[in-house]
Prior knowledge:
The chain is of the alpha/beta class. The protein has helices at residues 33-48, 70-74, 81-101, 117-123, 151-159, 161-170, 176-182, 194-206, 210-219, 225-243, 246-257, and strands at 9-14, 17-22, 54-59, 63-65, 106-110, 113-115, 127-131, 135-137, 174-175, 187-189. It has a single domain (9-191, 210-219), classed as Alpha-Beta Complex (2-enoyl-CoA Hydratase, Chain A, domain 1), CATH 3.90.226.10. It starts with 8 loop residues before the first strand and ends in a 10-residue tail after the last helix.
Amino acid sequence: MAIKASSPVISSVDSGIGIVMLNRPDTLNAINHELAAAWASAIDRAAGDAAVRAILLCAEGKGFSVGGDLAFFGENLGPGLAPLLGEIIDLLSAPVQQLRNSSKPVVSAVQGALGGGGIGLALSADVVICDASLKMRCGYAAIGLSPDAGASCFLAERIGEARARALFMTNRTVSAEECAALGIVDRLVSTEALRSEALETARQLADMSATSMAVIKSLCNPLRGDALAAQLRAEHDGMMRCAANADAVEGISAFRAKRKPVFGKSS
Length: 267
């Protein structure tokens, strides 16, 4: 059953494929409280639906997701920022774990801007397909915050801890071609073919033996169960530490004012 088009997340089932689509295109699918809650609900339905044999993650508009909605966060600077971020992180942690712990294969179709928590949502899939418009920028360091939504573990899983650490710390933009070369994504296709290629891949996986898919996913997934839960808790704690620091207020304020932030010199 599809969710109304005005929802920040649209979900439907098409011939055994559970399709979950981010739907805040005017913000490049920036993550606020409403989107996080809708995403969690949609993933829970898809993961728990016996009629769904594979899941497709996608997004409406010119970007998969830039990550956190800084305009929304900017309205809650001060003592309320850390609790707000904590609530959103907790909402995103549950579906991230469901996708990784589910026996169902998951495919993501990623275009345009990808940053922050959007990285975690995109890379929570087993197969990640992008088009040439993809530009990934981690974003956290620029505003005095730290990774969430599984971004730290999923990026490190794909390209190694050292490379992931460098991308998070330097905050440089990574092109679609480099994402493919590094292994951040599994396949680079044309913009016109992105959604159809991703859907076809999901259908191919849905037609495979469900038992085979479940066992392969389990054997090749070090980030299951307690290991993933522990990393997500560590992300939560790290974000709370950053959000309670004055640098987070400075970083978000500077971003909104389009100026260079001036961070403190001690942690």
